[in-house]
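ESCALATION

Customer reports they have been waiting on this structure for their group meeting. Please prioritize. Original submission:
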Amino acid sequence: MIELKSPEEIQRMAVTGQFVGELLAELRAVAAVGVNLMDLEHHARRRIKERGAESCYWDYSPSFGRGPFRNVLCLSVNDAVLHGLPHSYALRDGDLLSIDMAVGIDGWVADSALSVIVGTAAAEDLKLIEATEVALEAGIDAAVAGSHLGDVSAAIGEVARRYGYRVNNEFGGHGIGRTMHEAPHVANDGRSGRGMKLKPGLTIAIEPWFCRSTDKIKFDKDGWTIRSADGSRTAHSEHTVAITEAGPQVLTTRPGHGTTPGNRSGQSAATS
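Update from on-call: job pushed to the front of the queue and completed.
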């Protein structure tokens, strides 16, 4: 069932989203050559506890995965793109790191992700990250009341093809609100004019992710980490967005970017 949120409930989600955006910005700044992934994980655990928030990842047990997820971040490096299981690994110069997190505050959830280059950036990696960010922006722009869910998906897919990437639709965005994963599924490719009509009060996580040279994926033995099937690098960008009468409202903007309808996130592919 899809629950439409009131303006007051969207504002409560925005409070959570502000914290998520701030913490992701902190983690992006902390990620540097020599920093261990577990340092990022423990930084996030500490900040979440200080805020009185709850991780949506801790004890998460979907149909995939091997046992409950016992971390607060998904940290995916290079050819890993989704659900990267934090482990002891010191970041190296040129690594492409994707950071994904979702938390709840006072019963309302927000979810966001970004990708960064650690140290020296290769042009092809910057292009890949840029493609996910431009696709995210296009998906947000299409998330207008009266349009269709397929318009969001089609906008994302069009950007992927323009950059020369193929789209995997096994995993994508989703509804969000009282829990991390709600209806509807938000595919990263689709047909304009198809799917449910977007109504004010709908809140969704839009999350394009692309692999450089394939649309096929494989799972690590840990049952969580998803990688490109051919070992090529990957990137992932995500925001929680509310459909409002005034236009799409990004609830997880990071410091330095507005949160009112009509303002967009548009994070550039920055190096840490």
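Sent to customer with the following note: The longest strand covers residues 96-105.
Escalation resolved.
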